[in-house]
Write a structure and sequence with these properties.
Helix content is 30%, strand content 31%. The protein is an alpha+beta fold. The radius of gyration is 12 Å and the shape is globular.
Amino acid sequence: MPELSRFYGIVILMRYGDHAPPHFHARYGGSEISVAIDPFEVLAGRLPPRARGLVFQWVQMYKTELLQAWSRIEAAQPPGTIPPLE
């Protein structure tokens, strides 16, 4: 599963051949969530509140880049990387 970004111990990933809607996975420690990009919503899983808030902040900054990464991954191309939250 390609890694798009990493910040504050949170890893953002997308899977090749994954189902619609366009989404990504965020891992932190032993927790994981799946997050739809547009409209933005948690599809499954849980993260600690602080980690979830950081992911939400990051998505707001990089929504366009996430949708572009989804398009590339659907075409079986590397999704590229997205800057971390600083």
